[in-house]
Amino acid sequence: MEDTAVDLITLQMLQAAQATVRASPLGVINTPMIPGSQTTLPLNTACDIHIKMENLQRTGSFKIRGVANQFARRPAGGRFVTMSAGNYGKSFAYATKHYGTQGKVVMPETAPPSRSVLIQSFGVEVERVPTSCLVEVVNRCVRQENMTFLHPHDDVDLIAGHASVGLEILEAVPNPDVVVACCGGGGLLAGVAAAVKLSGCENARVYGVEPTGGGSVCYTLKVCAGVCVPGRVPYALCRRYVEEIVLVSDEEIKSAVSTLYRSGFLVEPSGAAAFAAVANDRIPDIAGKTVVLILSGGNIGKDELAHFPD
Fold first, then answer.
1. Distance (Å, rounded) from C-alpha 4 to C-alpha 120?
2. Are 68 and 19 spatial neighbours (Cβ–Cβ below 8 Å)?
3. CA–CA separation, 207 vs 109, rounded Å?
4. Minimal CA–CA distance to 187: which of 96, 284, 297?
5. How many angstroms separate the CA atoms of 6 and 173, rounded?
6. pLDDT value for 1
7. I want to staple 289 with a disulfide (CB 3.0 to 4.6 A). Which of 55, 98, 177, 301 is the partner?
8. Residues 6 or more apart whose Cβ sits within 8 Å of residue 122
């Protein structure tokens, strides 16, 4: 089933999704690409680094791209339910408010209460449940409340929307040698890898980054609040197009968040994973190469920053 879905993902499909995302009434931004040489970041690697700034994206992360494509391809006036601990839920809520549809986010009770408050501010219902009950509650909403489930990462339309990050990277840097993205649920990594490879950059190496101990992707491919188990379609795409999953420690991610902040970049922990990997020499053979790293999100508050090293 997964391989069939992967085979349906063509360059033409990704380009159509990019056009949908760019025309979306949700106001998705073509975020800047900044050469590392034009920042004060202490990058000591002898390579040409470019930084894709998805931390500046509408709603604070790349997630709005996939949501824009999902909503554009669903019937108007639908009633939608999803499960999320953070960034996807925020983008989902933003979209439901814009489209005037009803929505519910089923959230693990371990998520910070501030996230529930933020999502509810868009007029979306939040139901907090034990993590083990997430799927059960979503299924109840589908059966009993006639809601349509929008998956937060295991969805072809979502992944195609996320792939617009990869296509924008190639517009700015047509022939990257290496692209580095966080892993999380796998949707961003899968979409970017597919976009890069299907666009003809067959020799480009795409790496995913996962925190130590967070990594079902690492273990299964053998290839933070924002990190979760990958879906079947992202897994199949990553297996086909991703070079390797590398690991960084929690301390390295914390240090990366602080380093980025000191250089003027507000980036959440999961969004800083790619930078942490490059800064700590986890990506092999990049000397003299053109390297693109993605800062995938910037949803972090002042209270959270207080817990990071100076």
1. 37
2. no
3. 32
4. 297
5. 25
6. 54
7. 177
8. 90, 93, 94, 96, 97
